[in-house]
């Protein structure tokens, strides 16, 4: 059985890139504060603006892959074999990690929705009870599929539903299937990503983006990568080549996704998953040295769950403040991005500290405090 490993700076940075893309995407949507119409727009290549602005969905799929990899890696470190997983302990650990912050965020969302605040209050086809109930039962994406887009501040909860439903069944599959059959089942699920997406009509926009199985396919890619690392550790040179290959795949999809879709058989999501897996395997086998200039990005990765659940408060507040000062003008939208990201990080840090403080109050022990802090180490949004 492997002993627990220290934090992996490179994986933290990879998560930081993904959460940064999510935050920027939600700010850069055309009906909020897009970059292209700003004074900066004519000076920056359109492809670069699009790559930065419109890859939030792809970033979530990166998180799905990272989630499967990290959680499986941690289970293997603790138990040595997935057939030794304790479902009760697994579910309890998930609840301890997910629920405290989720409940705090839902309480704030519910209060603002009850007050009728725009982007928080439900639409005519939805209800506050429906939003809250679906979030607590991890059926939020299903609820959106039936009722239409949720209010902007609630909408991020769809990916959490996909992850947690996957992890309800995952330990049972580990116990119920022999290792070869488990690997085959995961491989079939992983390779079915595009066919599963194709089964949903593109005209059903909400469900096409947020169906359970495609997201679970991406998680399966991460689980398979973790199982691969258990049996194969590339040498330093191979790990470097693998990381470069993975980075190339991810950059290709993020920067030239239209060309990948047009000329490579619509394989962008496969390229994203394969590239993310390649980097995770390489970083796990031979962790690159920490670089002080990227500490802020790694910090975003460590705060990815807090950032994911809370960043819309900052995004919506930023949009409201900008419009109150400058009205409909989009000339200066580029100015708000760095402050908005910094404010999002600040809010996430505050929430992290609040969760630790709540753990102290509930348990009254420093041991529980250390456990709460450790629980933030290996988790992506929704993990």
Oligomer: single chain
Outline? globular
Spans where pLDDT lies below 50 across 5 or more residues: 374-382
So how many helices? 17
Biggest sheet layout? none
Residues in β-strands, percent: under 5%
SSE succession: HHHHHHHHHHHHHHHHH
The overall strand count is 0
Distance between the termini: 23 Å
Mean pLDDT: 92
Q: Roughly how many Å is the radius of gyration?
A: 20 Å
Helix percent reads over 70%
Topology:
Layout: H1 9-28, H2 46-53, H3 56-79, H4 87-114, H5 128-136, H6 140-147, H7 157-176, H8 179-191, H9 193-198, H10 205-210, H11 212-231, H12 236-263, H13 268-285, H14 295-302, H15 304-326, H16 337-363, H17 366-374
Helix pairs in contact: 1-3, 1-14, 1-15, 3-11, 3-13, 4-5, 5-6, 6-7, 7-11, 8-11, 11-13, 12-13, 15-16, 16-17
What do these coordinates show?
With 383 residues, this protein is mainly α. Helix 1 packs parallel to helix 15, helix 4 packs antiparallel against helix 5 and helix 12 runs antiparallel to helix 13. The C terminus is likely disordered. The chain has 17 helices and no strands. Helices cover 72% and strands 0% of the residues. The protein is globular, with a radius of gyration of 20 Å.
Search tags:
383 residues
Brief account:
With 383 residues, the protein is mainly alpha-helical. Helix content is 72%, strand content 0%. The chain has 17 helices and no strands.
């Amino acid at each position: 059985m492997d002993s627990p490993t220290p934090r992996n700076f490179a994986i933290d940075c990879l998560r930081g890139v993904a959460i940064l893309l999510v935050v920027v995407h939600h700010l850069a949507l055309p009906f909020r504060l897009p970059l292209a119409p700003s004074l900066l727009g004519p000076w920056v290549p359109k492809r670069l603006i699009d790559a930065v602005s419109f890859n939030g969905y792809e970033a979530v799929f990166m998180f799905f892959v990272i989630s499967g990899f990290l959680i499986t890696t941690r289970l293997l470190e603790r138990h040595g074999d997935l057939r030794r997983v304790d479902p009760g302990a697994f579910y309890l650990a998930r609840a301890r990690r997910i629920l405290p912050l989720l409940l705090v965020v839902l309480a704030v969302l519910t209060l603002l929705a009850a007050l009728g605040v725009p982007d928080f209050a439900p639409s005519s086809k939805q209800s506050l009870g429906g939003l809250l109930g679906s979030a607590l039962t991890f059926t939020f994406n299903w609820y959106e599929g039936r009722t239409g887009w949720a209010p902007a501040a609630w909408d991020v909860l769809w990916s959490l539903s996909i992850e947690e439903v996957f992890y309800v069944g995952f330990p049972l599959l580990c116990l119920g299937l022999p290792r070869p059959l488990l690997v085959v089942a995961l491989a079939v699920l992983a390779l079915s990503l595009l066919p599963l997406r194709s089964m949903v009509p593109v005209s059903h926009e909400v469900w096409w983006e947020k169906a359970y199985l495609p997201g679970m396919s991406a998680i399966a890619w991460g689980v398979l990568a973790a199982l691969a690392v258990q049996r194969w550790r590339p040498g330093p040179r191979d790990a470097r080549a693998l990381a470069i290959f993975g980075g190339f795949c991810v950059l290709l999809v993020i920067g030239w996704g239209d060309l990948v879709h047009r000329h490579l058989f619509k394989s962008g999501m496969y390229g994203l998953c394969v590239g993310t897996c390649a980097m995770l395997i390489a970083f796990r086998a031979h962790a690159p040295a920490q670089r002080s200039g990227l500490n802020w990005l790694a910090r975003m990765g460590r705060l990815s769950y807090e950032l994911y659940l809370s960043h819309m408060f900052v995004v919506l507040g930023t949009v409201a403040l900008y419009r109150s000062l400058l009205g409909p003008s989009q000339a200066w939208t580029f100015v708000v991005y760095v402050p908005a990201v910094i404010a999002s990080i600040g809010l996430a840090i505050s929430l992290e500290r609040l969760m630790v403080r709540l753990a102290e109050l509930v348990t009254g022990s420093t041991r529980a405090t250390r456990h709460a802090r450790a629980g933030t180490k290996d988790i992506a949004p929704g993990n």
